[in-house]
Amino acid sequence: MVKYKNWLFAIFVISFGAVKCFDINIGLLYESNNAQIEKVFHKAIELANTALMEEAHPLVGRTAEISFGNSYDSSRKLCKMLRGGVAAIFGPGTTASSTHAMSICDAKEVPYIDTRWDAETKLPTINIHPHPANIILAIRDLVNSYEWKGFTILYESGPYLPALDELLQMYGKNSHTITVRRYDLHLQGNYRNILRKIKRGHDRKIVIIGSIETLPDLLQQIQQVGLMNERFQYIIANLDLHTIDLEPYQYSESNITGIRLFDPNDFRVKLLSEHLSQAEEEGEETPPEEPEVGVEVEEALGEGAEEEKPNEENNHGGKTDITIQMALIYDGVHLLAETLRHVGSLELFEPINLNCHDSSTWETGFTLVNFMKSTTFQGITGEIKFDHQGLRTDFVMDIIELTAAGIVKTGQWSSDVGLHIERQPQKFVLENGGRKFANKTFRVITAITPPYGMLKETSQKLTGNDQYEGFGIELIHELSLMLGFNYTFLIQEDKVYGSYNKETKQWSGMIKEIIEGRADLAITDLTMTSDREMGVDFTMPFMNLGISILYRKPIKEPPELFSFMSPFSKEVWLYLGGAYLSVSLSLFILGRLSPAEWDNPYPCIEEPTVLENQFSFSNALWFTIGALLQQGSEIAPKAPSTRTVASIWWFFTLIMVSSYTANLAAFLTVESLSSPINSAEDLANGAGGVKYGAKKDGSTYNFFKDAKYETYQRMHEYMENHPELLPSSNDEGVAKAENENYAFLMESTSIEYTIERKCNLTQVGGLLDEKGYGIAMIKNSPYRNELSQAILNLQEQGKLSKMKTKWWKEKRGGGACSQKAQSDSAAELGMANLGGVYFVLIVGSVLASVYGVIEWIYIIFRRSRAYSVPFKEELMDELKFVLKCSGNTKEVKHRKSSSTGSRNSSMTLESMELDNSEKTNLHKGKETKNDA
Ligand code: GLU
């Protein structure tokens, strides 16, 4: 509605007003320390007059220098200016001087054009500076895109306090850990104490919100205190960052990101910049009151755009001496000129003389303000456009980054779209033709953990890097040869690799050393974990592994007593027994059936009355067992049927015996292994009462701590309740596993190393997870990619596996257990292996002896009864004869009359008496006991 009225009013003036020539004065109040502003102001007026203003109504600059921060001086000079009549006032750059001036302009209804960072802009003032809330939005977007979870805000009080408040509110209470530190003028330019506090803390990400006046000192002191290196990242929320000399920090490797509202390569910026340097060279004093309207300027304005194409060379490292205030003054002047150009007739806006001490006002002043707020103009700082609140809108800021090549644009932020990163922060622009490692000495922290880092075994006194050897030491050496850096080893005495304590919010061990900047790289069996990745960066893994169990080798159980039975299964033995009996039976039957098996027992008798068969059942058994045991017997089958059975049996026994013999050696030497645990489940279930643990606060322990699997959770609970079972180093754990009933949860690579040397230990079960070891370094380290690449190269060349073989299997007692295993394989058989055979022999002999003695006593007993002689006497006689141990003949003591006659005169009485049936079975040529 207001706008509508204003334009109607303007049309009325155009239609009816008289046209006359007059100057349109505009005033500038500037602080004594900012004299360059005045030159820019005049140059801007000059260019605006040329491009936009009618000749009859040129803009004329009225300027007044005020002492810095002196509000009285600024009010006084402003009033003087108002007395001369001005159409608009450009206010000073500091809050102290501008507040009063702004109120006076407000009272006199004179447009006040502000160019300050001001969170509390009061309408109807026009502030061309983007509102700090928008700048803070851009900072927040940057922090989010860099994924900072915690950071420090270093702010300057005064006008920057509301911005800080805004930022803190955006993050709420719980999301990020934000530390706020103030650096202020009251510190008289000495911010080192605050910076040292930051150094002692953990934050390496810092947002700086402050004025450009304090920034150079602050950055210098940041460097002096040691916070300007590759471990630190800064976001600087000041639109003048590009105006200060950043060269000393270009090579610091710290990541400095900033914002800017205009491109230093813009031709208008260059024009202003040239103007300033010319003015300086010529010792130019106050510029002419009247604008010099000339063709040359117009040319510069028109052609410059084509000639001055932005490129890296013109960039001067992205630095310019044109400050945001200068650029905004330029844009302000042009905005005013553009507005006046569009109001048609300017009579209405002819400035009037105003007195600060009366109630006079410039009635059309606020109309001009409204016109200006509804005008859009393409200025140095982008499109000048205001929203309904009168704040700048639709502006775009460049995201810039300091690199070794100077300031480089990496993206942009616009109030409507937000952040757009065109390329990831360029952490490093290579110097020296890409040799970023040249002259770089890394402090490499390691721990004395075999075989990654070990003290050399020598009688000589060694110092420095020479003291150490091992896989990690050699790897760093190889990398240094490839990349050309130097290194010094540091030792983590307590062997704590590092973990994050969520309660104390502290890191420990080697990771802490890296984060706090006491070491550049960490190498050992340092596992890459997601937790550690939050604090440090890792290279590509140089070794892959998983968690497993180190435990005593299973105890060898001696072979069983009857291990000679093992070559055949029980069934085979049973069937063998069955076959033996069946074949014996078939021989017995076939023998009886076959006529060829019936012989004349007395060959001298041609017509025998009886025939004799050699295959009695006992003889059949004897024949079969003789064949089975490869001994033979003197029984020879004669009939085709018995011969067939015998042949088949011999063939059968041949195969059986060969098979048995072939298998026997293996079974005699088999020693079964028994272990109470075979897996993590067994450990969790307490099998065999085996105690277990992992290295204290190591990645293995943390694996169980964070595990979701129920078994591992139980194991963690156990370990948590038994802190005495958590050794502080692998060596301690290994010693425990050797000497106690203790299983050490260890990483497979370290297990491999251990069991090469400690032959009584072994790995139990498979891997519980998969992970890798990497070299740790500070987050966002510029060296990470090259180190990773070099590790990949070493891997591809096979050097890593060679190194592994060397340190695992060859050096420091490697291969001891594989040699032992070889010598074990030629072990002789002992009594444990063959005891069963002896047992059978003894038992067989004893049984035979017992049987022999019983039979002997029984015959004596029968004889004593048959001849009615005392048993005792008979027994003693026989005993005496046996104990005499000599003589192969024996006298027959009790003879009957030879009534048995002709049948067999040489047959003994005893044998006739005892068992006639047995005698018939005796082979005729086998009788040894002949009558004397
Ligand atoms: N490699 C482990 C770590 O980086 C140490 C040994 C372990 O926990 O098994 O913490």
Explain the overall architecture.
- Helices cover 43% and strands 15% of the residues.
- The protein has an eight-stranded mixed β-sheet.
- It has seven domains: 20-129 and 276-309 and 323-392, Response regulator (Rossmann fold, 3-Layer(aba) Sandwich); 133-238 and 241-265 and 397-421, Response regulator (Rossmann fold), CATH 3.40.50; 456-546 and 774-810, Periplasmic binding protein-like II (D-Maltodextrin-Binding Protein, domain 2); 552-556 and 676-769, 3-Layer(aba) Sandwich (D-Maltodextrin-Binding Protein, domain 2), CATH 3.40.190; 563-669, Helix Hairpins; 828-894; 898-932, no CATH class.
- By secondary structure, it is α/β, with parallel strands linked by helices.
- Glutamic acid is lined by residues 497, 525-527, 694-695, 698-701, 746-747.
Task: Chart the SSEs and their pairings.
Elements (H helix, E strand, L loop, with lengths): L1 H15 L7 E8 L4 H16 L7 E8 L4 H13 L4 E3 L4 H14 L3 E3 L11 E2 L4 H14 L4 E6 L5 H11 L5 E6 L9 H9 L4 E5 L5 H11 L7 E4 L10 H4 L4 E6 L6 H16 L12 H13 L4 H4 L8 H19 L22 H9 L3 E3 L2 E3 L11 E8 L2 E9 L3 E4 L19 E6 L7 E2 L12 E2 L1 H13 L2 E6 L8 E2 L4 E2 L1 H7 L5 E2 L7 H6 E3 L4 E3 L1 E6 L2 E2 L13 H24 L4 E2 L12 E2 L3 H12 L11 H30 L3 E2 L5 H5 L6 E4 L4 H7 L4 H12 L8 H10 L2 E6 H10 L3 E4 L6 E3 L2 E3 L5 H13 L2 H12 L5 H9 L6 H36 L4 H14 L24 H6 L1 H6 L11
Parallel strand pairs: 1-2, 1-3, 3-4, 4-5, 6-7, 6-8, 8-9, 9-10, 16-19, 16-22, 30-31
Antiparallel strand pairs: 10-13, 11-12, 13-14, 14-15, 17-18, 20-21, 22-34, 23-34, 24-33, 25-31, 25-32, 26-29, 27-28
Helix pairs in contact: 2-10, 2-11, 2-13, 3-4, 5-6, 7-8, 15-26, 18-19, 18-20, 29-30
